[in-house]
Amino acid sequence: MKENLDSNWLGNKEEDEIYRDNIIDHFKNPRNYGEIVEAEIKHSELNSICGDMIRLFVKLKEGKVEDVKFKGNGCAISMAATSMMTEILKEKTLDEIKNLKKEDIFEMLGIELGVVRMKCGLLCLDTLMKGIEQMEGKYGIKN
Amino acid sequence: MNNNNIKNHALNVVEIRKDFSILNKKINGKQLIYLDNAATSLTPEPVIGAMNEYYGDYNANVHRSIHYIGEKATKEYEDAHKKVADFINADFEEIIFTRGTTESLNALAYSLTNDLKEGDEIVLSEMEHHSNLVPWQQLAKNKKVKVRYIRINKDFELDMNHAKELINKKTKIISVTHVSNVLGTINPVKDIGRLAKDVGAIFIIDSAQGIPHLKVDVKDIDCDFLCFSGHKMLGPTGIGVLYGKKKMLEKLNPFLFGGEMIKEVNFEDSKWNDLPWKFEAGTPNIAGGIGLGAAVDYLKKIGMENIRAYEENLVNYAFRRLNEAGLKIYCAKNPNKMSSVLTFKVDGMHAHDVAALLDRNGIAIRAGHMCAMPLVNKVLNEPALCRVSLCFYNTIEEIDSLIDGIKKAREVFQIE
Q1: pLDDT tens readout for residues A46-91
Q2: Within an 8 Å CB–CB cutoff, is residue A10 touching chain B?
Q3: Is residue B38 assigned to a domain?
Q4: Contact B233, B293 (CB under 8 A)
Q5: Distance (Å) of CA B297 to CA A57, A119, B46, B50, B82
Q6: A70: which strand partners?
Q7: What CA–CA distance (Å, rounded) separates A87 from B115?
Q8: Which of A139, A142, B109, B156 has fewest C-beta within 10 Å?
Q9: A19 interfacial to chain B (CB closer than 8 Å)
């Protein structure tokens, strides 16, 4: 039986592997790594369990994502998830990115995460959502 | 098991390991290799047995009931204090049971800072665990007292010249760790004690990582207070010790009020109980205390000198192997100043990924900031590190498995 408590579970089946090649690839070669000086969304979040830190920059133009970059330091899961998320954000509208769900992140990662590593995988989404909230507060935009 | 290796020591590790049933457990289909002893040590059968016996045979409250099991519980609980006192060469009245090191240090911070005034200084070190940093930092903020930190040098030892510069007439409290839970450095506590005495400061030692590995004699060290936890020295969680010199404890006001700690209560005022009970308000953690006493018995039976000799050999071997593997190790370079902790970094991998991949081989290590964020993030300048911490039931073969595990982890991350 699969123990969900065990976040690092490696079963005999290939689908149980969390350190898949695509995850390692995104960790070692993060996409959209860097900064955007003039970005509407600029936000940092920390996952104190792992010490993962992400700073996300999103530049919007006419309600659409024009550019995304991130900087960070963290485990392979948190960094790969953020790198992958930046890829899917581009060209999306603000409303579309606001509707991103954690299931979208899991689907993108293609792996199942235990309770502990879940926080690593979802840090990117958390940073994005808090960044949007902060921007809306700053510009007085209401839903 | 390499028997030749064990024969060189007074320790029979093969026999000792039989007392720790958890060592037979399989994790992810692999034999558990427990290298996270600085977080908590494993619990041997005699300690579990002593606590079970209390609940199974004489489960009663202490210091009140005049019936057989009540007296038996009182005797065993008091005996546990005596065992701890003997273990560190203290007197019975000087041993207060608390929930652990954190509670002991917090209790001191609350009680001692009442006498501090603006401009006074508290001296800690850069290598403190959060439990010996946050209580002082927060109380200092309220009292407008300054906290100063003794620097560490390039050998990951305390910079004693800096200590001499920092400690002056304004210094009222000096509280330092005996052994760093990150660097494993054994600090020169006697020397720091002398500096404290020169300026009349109260000297406190956080020995959470010292007591389980070194022979500690509070009279020889000559500290005012010494704090440690049961669960890092083979005892249960939820029990710890605050040692205080008798004359210091007599002056100190109780930090918890209620039952047990009083001699006489009137509507207007109360009189405090004798030491050590003056500081143990409420029904204590009786089973925990008895378990701690059994842990002391266990350690004494093996002998702290034997433990130190065995662990010194083991940690040196681990250091050599990690070093050969090309890893950066953050620990004292002088083997005499090195305890059973090795903190290291695997380039190209985050510490949590290293720990997660080792876990697949049943190897338990710690990854992160080890509850010493200022040290790890600001002084060592790392977001997270890996830590291996050893105990006398660990073996050379387990270190070899660790090295293999790190090699496999690097392969997953395609590191040459």
Answers
A1: 987 777 899 999 999 999 999 999 999 999 999 999 999 999 999 8
A2: yes
A3: no
A4: no
A5: 59, 42, 9, 11, 11
A6: A33, A56
A7: 59
A8: A142
A9: yes
* CATH number at A17-131: 3.90.1010.10
**What is the H or E stretch that residue A45 is in?**
strand A41-47
d(CA A78, CA A81): 5
CA–CA–CA angle B133, B136, B137 (5° rounding): 75
Give me the CATH number covering residue B403. Answer: 3.90.1150.10
CB B406 within 8 A of CB B412: no
What pLDDT band is residue A16 in, cutting at 50, 70 and 90?
Answer: low
Mark the ranges of chain B whose per-residue pLDDT is less than 70.
1-9
Residue ranges making up the domain that contains B351: 3-31+303-412
pLDDT digits (tens, 9 = 90+) for A92-143: 999 999 999 999 999 999 888 888 889 999 999 999 999 999 998 876 654 4
Give Dmax (Cα) for chain B: 75
Does residue B42 lie in a domain region? Answer: no
pLDDT at A10: 45
Q: What share of chain A is helix, strand, coil (3-state, %, to 5)?
A: 45, 20, 35
User: Is A119 an 8 Å CB contact of chain B?
Assistant: no
A49 touches chain B (CB under 8 A): yes
Residues 6+ apart with CB under 8 A from B307: B11, B213, B299, B392
Identity at A34, one-letter amino acid code:
G
Which residue in chain A is spatially nearest to B347 when comparing CA positions?
Answer: A28
Whether residues B91 and B213 fall in one domain? yes
What whole-number distance in Å separates Cα of residue B319 and Cα of residue B381? 21
The answer to whether residue B39 is domain-embedded is no
Q: Are residues B123 and B178 in the same domain?
A: yes
ipTM over 0.90: no
Q: In this complex, how many residue pairs, one in chain A and one in chain B, have their CB atoms less than 8 Å apart?
A: 57
Tokens 């049943």 belong to which residue? B362
Amino acid A4: pLDDT: 42
- Model pTM? 0.91
Is B331 among the residues known to form the active site?
Answer: no
Tell me the per-residue pLDDT of B116-126, one tens digit each, with 9 for 90 and over.
999 999 999 99
B20 and B133 assigned to the same domain = no
Residues 83-112 of A with CB under 8 A from B: none
Q: State residue B228's pLDDT score.
A: 98
CB pair distance less than 8 Å for A9 and B28: yes
Within a domain: B186: yes
A6 band by pLDDT with thresholds 50, 70 and 90:
very low
